[in-house]
Amino acid sequence: MVLGKGGSGWKIFFCGSHHPGLGSVCLLPYAVARGQKSVSRKVLDELKQQIPLLEYLQTYDWQPARALNGGRWMGLCPLHTDHKPSFLVDPHKDLFYCYGCGRGGDVIRFAELYHQVNFPQAVTLLRQWCGLAPLLNAATDFYRIQLQRYNEAIVYLDQRGIHSCEVIEHMRIGYAPGRCLRSWLTQLGYPLSVLRQASLITAAGYDSYSRCIIFPLESNLYGRSIQDSALPHRFMAGSKGGLYLWEQVRRCPEVILVEGLFDYAVLWQAGFRNLTCSLGNHLNAQQFQQLCDNPRIIYLAFDADTNGSGQCASQLLSRRLWAQGITVRRVVLPVGHDPNSFFVQGGDASQFQSLLEAARP
Ligand SMILES: [Zn+2]
Prior knowledge:
Elements: H1 11-14, H2 30-33, H3 41-50, H4 53-58, E1 66-67, E2 73-75, E3 87-90, E4 95-98, E5 104-105, H5 107-115, H6 119-147, H7 151-159, H8 165-171, E6 174-176, H9 181-187, H10 192-197, E7 212-216, E8 221-225, E9 233-235, E10 254-258, H11 261-269, E11 275-277, H12 285-292, E12 297-301, H13 309-323, E13 327-330, H14 339-344, H15 349-358
Parallel strand pairs: 10-11, 10-12, 12-13
Antiparallel strand pairs: 1-2, 2-3, 3-4, 4-5, 6-7, 7-8, 8-9
């Protein structure tokens, strides 16, 4: 299964044609573009409260390398070429300091330095960062309403073995019919430029996910086209994020990892709940880190591709996880199958359970 490459976080999201650092300053809202003085102290404090520094750093793939006392962290500096961790983050004070390049400050200062923009531009970027979650929720609501209205979507889900309302509810599955998204979102007050920048809307003004089944992720949307002629997998610009619904399973001593959300859906429907998904067989740094954050047993149930690529990816990942002290069992599916097709072609929970029990390192 080939999916869009997980990028390096929201860098891409902000590097569209409207990136203020690329000379499009005229596109900034006036109140901010006029300068620092027009933004009141109170507004800035509120903005900073909405954006925990550590969370902001992590959307740019920053990883803590070691813990210090007082809940502080050290890691590589994202602001200069750093070979040993010299970047200190204090999540309680929401401040950073780099012992390498000597720079430090709050989240606004970080945004200025990282994106190489001035103060009001950094404030605008941070506001956009805050605005993404509500925008994603609004789009998700729209797509979920459409799902029940379009028979083609229900027929497609049925073909992929998804029948239960519970799983549709649990995964918040929706459908993009290819119309009305733009007017729905602009009526809610989102400017067209923001929708384009988030890559929800194409340059020509159409829904980017036209005729896709939609699965909302933590900070992105995954779309699976129902048309054979179209690109099968779609994401918004930006990272695919961490493992799917990881918070719900991170305390399980045994976790099943699958490649695709349709695999996840049929297994969940069959009663398997200690389940997560990496959206492709290549894990990004955040996903790998999540699997390693505690001792556990991972059941790798990747696709058994006829060309062996899923098996190869599974073997490689297995070795990397063992090296981190994680116990891995590789689930062997019949060749040419993934967990989704296994269930679609008549496999049931007890047969899959037998595969789990037969899984070997
Ligand atoms: Zn530095």
